[in-house]
Amino acid sequence: MSSHTGYHRAQVVERVDWTDELFSLRVSHTPLDFVAGQFTKLGLETADGELISRAYSLVNAPDTQNGHEFLITTVPQGKLSPSLQALVAGDSIWVGDSAHGDLTRAFVPEQTQDLWLLATGTGIGPFLSLLQGRQLAPRRIILVHGVRFARDLAYQALIHKLLNEYQGQLSYHPVVSREPVENTLQGRIPALIDSAALQDAAGVRMSPQHSFAMLCGNPDMIKDTIKSLQNQGLERYRQATGGNIIHERYW
Ligand SMILES: Cc1cc2nc3c(=O)[nH]c(=O)nc-3n(C[C@H](O)[C@H](O)[C@H](O)COP(=O)(O)OP(=O)(O)OC[C@H]3O[C@@H](n4cnc5c(N)ncnc54)[C@H](O)[C@@H]3O)c2cc1C
Ligand SMILES: NC(=O)c1ccc[n+]([C@@H]2O[C@H](COP(=O)([O-])OP(=O)(O)OC[C@H]3O[C@@H](n4cnc5c(N)ncnc54)[C@H](OP(=O)(O)O)[C@@H]3O)[C@@H](O)[C@H]2O)c1
């Protein structure tokens, strides 16, 4: 049996298809020391035994014994993601034995009163892990998910369960860019910050004194959203000086 340094072999337990190109994979439990919000690697062997692997964020909280879960979009010409989408229960997969990433509770300053979790596409994954880990202390948590179409709004049942559990501490704001949806913000996250439509929907103003933002997903969204947040007075987080914004680019 082959082995790959830095990986454990696992089996696919379940694949849930949200749309034609968006799916979740749950894989059997492997030893993986991670904190909520981090990513590890998933890999598949080619016919000649080469491992092709990429980074994927964990959606589950660290203390679950139910395997590890990932939310994945298929990049049509991609080397790995189309093969991940073809997996079915029982198939083998390689899971990294370490996890990394800064979208973790440790980076959220104690004085944070409002925590903005701003995601596009599969970038919502690490925020669902953080929320399920129930480690977030700020008075208000504002989860914002930007997608192209309403059908891309995955994990509605989990999000509604979390909204109940957080009892008013958490609010959820889907943002759909390519079709009008009743009672839903339309457009892109940075423009909605610039116009204050997002802050109005959340009922929270941003301020460098009490706001902290975590950004995840599309690199152009991250670039543009940082500018919009800076216009609100927020600054990128740096270890030496602190700040209000951390991010993780997916490509
Ligand atoms: C820290 C980190 C965490 C990540 N977590 C996730 C995750 O939870 N879920 C997830 O689906 N992906 C995630 N990604 C992206 C993932 O690692 C792969 O890059 C992606 O699945 C494409 O791999 P591929 O082999 O199919 O495409 P490749 O053959 O590697 O690349 C094709 C090209 O597609 C572009 N690309 C990569 N990802 C995307 C994307 N999502 N949308 C559009 N274009 C893209 C890149 O420009 C890349 O050059 C993460 C990436 C990083 C760096
Ligand atoms: N073959 C297909 O038809 C097809 C369809 C869907 C996805 N895909 C594949 O899946 C990948 C990921 O798709 P995805 O829908 O999850 O992610 P995505 O392309 O990152 O789009 C998610 C959301 O991010 C928004 N966005 C893009 N650039 C932004 C910016 N600069 N600032 C703020 N928001 C921005 C998009 O708005 P806009 O809508 O305004 O761009 C959309 O609302 C695609 O890149 C593609 O590879 C393919």
Automatic annotation (TrEMBL):
<dbReference type="InterPro" id="IPR017927">
    <property type="entry name" value="FAD-bd_FR_type"/>
</dbReference>
<feature type="domain" description="FAD-binding FR-type">
    <location>
        <begin position="5"/>
        <end position="106"/>
    </location>
</feature>
<dbReference type="InterPro" id="IPR001433">
    <property type="entry name" value="OxRdtase_FAD/NAD-bd"/>
</dbReference>
<keyword id="KW-0285">Flavoprotein</keyword>
<keyword id="KW-0521">NADP</keyword>
<dbReference type="GO" id="GO:0000166">
    <property type="term" value="F:nucleotide binding"/>
</dbReference>
<dbReference type="Pfam" id="PF00175">
    <property type="entry name" value="NAD_binding_1"/>
</dbReference>
<dbReference type="Pfam" id="PF00970">
    <property type="entry name" value="FAD_binding_6"/>
</dbReference>
<dbReference type="GO" id="GO:0034599">
    <property type="term" value="P:cellular response to oxidative stress"/>
</dbReference>
<dbReference type="InterPro" id="IPR008333">
    <property type="entry name" value="Cbr1-like_FAD-bd_dom"/>
</dbReference>
<keyword id="KW-0274">FAD</keyword>
<keyword id="KW-0560">Oxidoreductase</keyword>
<dbReference type="GO" id="GO:0004324">
    <property type="term" value="F:ferredoxin-NADP+ reductase activity"/>
</dbReference>
<dbReference type="GO" id="GO:0042167">
    <property type="term" value="P:heme catabolic process"/>
</dbReference>
<keyword id="KW-0547">Nucleotide-binding</keyword>
<dbReference type="InterPro" id="IPR033892">
    <property type="entry name" value="FNR_bac"/>
</dbReference>
<dbReference type="InterPro" id="IPR051930">
    <property type="entry name" value="FNR_type-1"/>
</dbReference>
<protein>
    <submittedName>
        <fullName>Ferredoxin--NADP reductase</fullName>
    </submittedName>
</protein>
